[in-house]
Design a protein that fits this description.
Helices cover 79% and strands 0% of the residues. The chain is an all-alpha fold. It starts with a helix and ends with a helix.
Protein backbone atom coordinates (compact mmCIF):
# COMPACT_ATOMS: atom_id res chain seq x y z
CA UNK A 1 0.00 0.00 0.00
CA UNK A 2 2.91 2.37 0.76
CA UNK A 3 4.39 1.79 -2.69
CA UNK A 4 0.96 2.34 -4.26
CA UNK A 5 0.38 5.59 -2.37
CA UNK A 6 3.84 6.85 -3.38
CA UNK A 7 3.25 6.00 -7.05
CA UNK A 8 5.70 3.11 -7.17
CA UNK A 9 3.22 0.86 -8.96
CA UNK A 10 5.69 -1.71 -10.27
CA UNK A 11 7.05 -2.38 -6.79
CA UNK A 12 3.54 -2.51 -5.37
CA UNK A 13 2.59 -5.05 -8.04
CA UNK A 14 5.44 -7.31 -6.99
CA UNK A 15 4.38 -7.12 -3.35
CA UNK A 16 0.78 -7.92 -4.24
CA UNK A 17 1.91 -11.05 -6.10
CA UNK A 18 3.96 -12.21 -3.12
CA UNK A 19 1.09 -11.56 -0.73
CA UNK A 20 -1.42 -13.51 -2.81
CA UNK A 21 1.01 -16.40 -3.21
CA UNK A 22 1.30 -16.70 0.58
CA UNK A 23 -2.11 -15.55 1.77
CA UNK A 24 -4.40 -16.16 -1.20
CA UNK A 25 -7.19 -17.40 1.08
CA UNK A 26 -6.61 -14.86 3.85
CA UNK A 27 -9.05 -12.29 5.15
CA UNK A 28 -7.40 -9.48 3.16
CA UNK A 29 -7.02 -11.46 -0.07
CA UNK A 30 -10.06 -9.83 -1.69
CA UNK A 31 -8.84 -6.30 -1.10
CA UNK A 32 -5.36 -7.31 -2.31
CA UNK A 33 -6.84 -8.72 -5.52
CA UNK A 34 -8.69 -5.44 -6.04
CA UNK A 35 -5.44 -3.54 -5.50
CA UNK A 36 -3.58 -5.82 -7.89
CA UNK A 37 -6.21 -5.28 -10.57
CA UNK A 38 -5.92 -1.52 -10.14
CA UNK A 39 -2.13 -1.70 -10.40
CA UNK A 40 -2.29 -3.78 -13.58
CA UNK A 41 -4.72 -1.24 -15.04
CA UNK A 42 -2.50 1.71 -14.13
CA UNK A 43 0.51 -0.03 -15.64
CA UNK A 44 -1.51 -0.86 -18.77
CA UNK A 45 -1.14 -4.60 -18.35
CA UNK A 46 -4.66 -4.89 -19.70
CA UNK A 47 -4.83 -8.60 -20.50
CA UNK A 48 -3.76 -9.50 -16.98
CA UNK A 49 -6.12 -6.96 -15.44
CA UNK A 50 -9.25 -8.45 -17.02
CA UNK A 51 -9.55 -11.30 -14.51
CA UNK A 52 -9.56 -8.92 -11.54
CA UNK A 53 -11.93 -6.36 -13.03
CA UNK A 54 -14.40 -8.98 -14.24
CA UNK A 55 -14.43 -10.24 -10.66
CA UNK A 56 -15.02 -6.75 -9.22
CA UNK A 57 -17.59 -5.87 -11.87
CA UNK A 58 -19.58 -8.97 -10.99
CA UNK A 59 -19.98 -8.07 -7.34
CA UNK A 60 -22.69 -5.84 -5.92
CA UNK A 61 -21.50 -2.79 -4.02
CA UNK A 62 -20.27 0.76 -4.35
CA UNK A 63 -17.14 -0.26 -6.28
CA UNK A 64 -19.05 -2.03 -9.03
CA UNK A 65 -19.68 0.89 -11.41
CA UNK A 66 -16.09 2.10 -11.10
CA UNK A 67 -14.82 -1.39 -11.88
CA UNK A 68 -17.18 -1.71 -14.85
CA UNK A 69 -16.17 1.56 -16.53
CA UNK A 70 -12.49 0.64 -16.15
CA UNK A 71 -13.22 -2.82 -17.53
CA UNK A 72 -14.90 -1.20 -20.54
CA UNK A 73 -11.79 0.96 -21.00
CA UNK A 74 -9.59 -2.13 -20.83
CA UNK A 75 -11.59 -3.82 -23.57
CA UNK A 76 -11.55 -0.63 -25.66
CA UNK A 77 -7.76 -0.46 -25.41
CA UNK A 78 -7.55 -4.11 -26.46
CA UNK A 79 -9.95 -3.44 -29.36
CA UNK A 80 -12.41 -5.99 -28.00
CA UNK A 81 -15.50 -4.05 -29.04
CA UNK A 82 -18.06 -6.73 -28.26
CA UNK A 83 -16.82 -7.07 -24.70
CA UNK A 84 -16.71 -3.29 -24.32
CA UNK A 85 -20.32 -3.09 -25.54
CA UNK A 86 -21.39 -5.82 -23.12
CA UNK A 87 -19.95 -3.95 -20.14
CA UNK A 88 -21.31 -0.55 -21.21
CA UNK A 89 -24.78 -2.06 -21.72
CA UNK A 90 -24.55 -3.60 -18.27
CA UNK A 91 -23.80 -0.21 -16.72
CA UNK A 92 -26.66 1.49 -18.58
CA UNK A 93 -29.27 -1.20 -17.94
CA UNK A 94 -28.39 -1.71 -14.28
CA UNK A 95 -28.95 1.92 -13.29
CA UNK A 96 -31.75 3.40 -15.45
CA UNK A 97 -32.36 7.04 -14.62
CA UNK A 98 -29.38 7.21 -12.27
CA UNK A 99 -27.16 10.24 -12.73
CA UNK A 100 -23.43 9.86 -12.16
CA UNK A 101 -20.16 10.65 -13.96
CA UNK A 102 -19.81 6.95 -14.78
CA UNK A 103 -23.30 6.72 -16.27
CA UNK A 104 -22.59 9.91 -18.22
CA UNK A 105 -19.45 8.38 -19.70
CA UNK A 106 -21.11 5.03 -20.41
CA UNK A 107 -24.05 6.61 -22.27
CA UNK A 108 -21.81 8.74 -24.48
CA UNK A 109 -19.35 5.94 -25.25
CA UNK A 110 -22.04 3.38 -26.05
CA UNK A 111 -24.04 5.82 -28.20
CA UNK A 112 -20.91 6.65 -30.18
CA UNK A 113 -20.01 2.99 -30.55
CA UNK A 114 -23.52 2.23 -31.86
CA UNK A 115 -23.32 5.13 -34.32
CA UNK A 116 -19.98 3.89 -35.64
CA UNK A 117 -21.43 0.39 -36.16
CA UNK A 118 -24.46 1.75 -38.02
CA UNK A 119 -27.07 1.05 -35.30
CA UNK A 120 -28.50 4.53 -35.72
CA UNK A 121 -31.88 4.18 -34.03
CA UNK A 122 -30.47 2.93 -30.76
CA UNK A 123 -27.59 5.42 -30.95
CA UNK A 124 -30.15 8.20 -31.40
CA UNK A 125 -32.08 7.02 -28.33
CA UNK A 126 -28.95 6.99 -26.17
CA UNK A 127 -27.75 10.39 -27.41
CA UNK A 128 -31.17 11.86 -26.57
CA UNK A 129 -31.05 10.28 -23.12
CA UNK A 130 -27.54 11.63 -22.62
CA UNK A 131 -28.48 15.19 -23.64
CA UNK A 132 -31.56 15.17 -21.43
CA UNK A 133 -29.65 13.91 -18.39
CA UNK A 134 -26.33 15.74 -18.87
CA UNK A 135 -26.95 19.05 -20.70
CA UNK A 136 -23.80 20.59 -19.19
CA UNK A 137 -21.41 17.70 -19.82
CA UNK A 138 -18.12 18.40 -21.58
CA UNK A 139 -19.35 15.78 -24.11
CA UNK A 140 -22.63 17.65 -24.78
CA UNK A 141 -21.60 19.55 -27.91
CA UNK A 142 -20.14 16.47 -29.56
CA UNK A 143 -23.23 14.46 -28.62
CA UNK A 144 -25.33 17.13 -30.35
CA UNK A 145 -23.12 16.88 -33.42
CA UNK A 146 -23.41 13.09 -33.60
CA UNK A 147 -27.17 13.31 -33.08
CA UNK A 148 -27.42 15.91 -35.86
CA UNK A 149 -25.62 13.52 -38.24
CA UNK A 150 -28.03 10.74 -37.33
CA UNK A 151 -31.21 12.81 -37.59
CA UNK A 152 -30.11 14.06 -41.00
CA UNK A 153 -29.89 10.44 -42.10
CA UNK A 154 -33.01 8.94 -40.53
CA UNK A 155 -35.54 11.57 -39.58
CA UNK A 156 -35.49 15.36 -39.80
CA UNK A 157 -33.33 17.88 -41.62
CA UNK A 158 -34.88 20.62 -39.49
CA UNK A 159 -33.93 18.97 -36.20
CA UNK A 160 -30.42 18.37 -37.52
CA UNK A 161 -30.06 22.05 -38.47
CA UNK A 162 -31.38 23.17 -35.08
CA UNK A 163 -28.77 21.02 -33.34
CA UNK A 164 -25.99 22.34 -35.58
CA UNK A 165 -27.00 25.96 -35.01
CA UNK A 166 -27.02 25.33 -31.25
CA UNK A 167 -23.48 23.99 -31.52
CA UNK A 168 -22.34 27.00 -33.55
CA UNK A 169 -23.79 29.38 -30.99
CA UNK A 170 -22.31 27.73 -27.89
CA UNK A 171 -19.16 25.76 -28.69
CA UNK A 172 -15.60 27.07 -28.47
CA UNK A 173 -14.04 23.89 -29.89
CA UNK A 174 -12.51 24.95 -33.21
CA UNK A 175 -12.47 21.40 -34.58
CA UNK A 176 -16.13 20.91 -33.71
CA UNK A 177 -17.09 24.33 -35.09
CA UNK A 178 -15.46 23.48 -38.41
CA UNK A 179 -17.20 20.09 -38.52
CA UNK A 180 -20.56 21.65 -37.59
CA UNK A 181 -20.23 24.29 -40.31
CA UNK A 182 -19.52 21.61 -42.90
CA UNK A 183 -22.46 19.55 -41.63
CA UNK A 184 -24.80 22.56 -41.86
CA UNK A 185 -23.80 23.03 -45.51
CA UNK A 186 -24.26 19.31 -46.13
CA UNK A 187 -27.74 19.36 -44.58
CA UNK A 188 -28.76 22.38 -46.68
CA UNK A 189 -27.49 20.71 -49.86
CA UNK A 190 -29.19 17.41 -49.05
CA UNK A 191 -32.48 19.20 -48.33
CA UNK A 192 -32.24 21.18 -51.59
CA UNK A 193 -31.64 17.98 -53.55
CA UNK A 194 -34.63 16.30 -51.92
CA UNK A 195 -36.82 19.33 -52.62
CA UNK A 196 -35.69 19.30 -56.25
CA UNK A 197 -36.56 15.62 -56.67
CA UNK A 198 -39.93 16.17 -54.99
CA UNK A 199 -40.80 19.07 -57.30
CA UNK A 200 -39.70 17.10 -60.34
CA UNK A 201 -41.84 14.14 -59.28
CA UNK A 202 -44.87 16.37 -58.77
CA UNK A 203 -44.29 18.03 -62.15
CA UNK A 204 -44.00 14.65 -63.87
CA UNK A 205 -47.18 13.36 -62.23
CA UNK A 206 -49.06 16.51 -63.32
CA UNK A 207 -47.75 16.49 -66.88
CA UNK A 208 -50.22 15.51 -69.65
Amino acid sequence: QIDYDSGNFSQALQWSARYLERFGQGTDARSMRELRGELLYLLRHYEEAIEYFEEMAGREGEKRLSAQIKLADIYRNLDRRNDEARVLDSIISASPGQRSPIMEQALFLRATQLKESGELQRAMTLYREFLESYPDSHHTDWAMYHLAQITMEVSSHQEALTLVHDILSRSTDTILLSAATSLANEIDLDRDIQDFHLRRTRFSEGAP
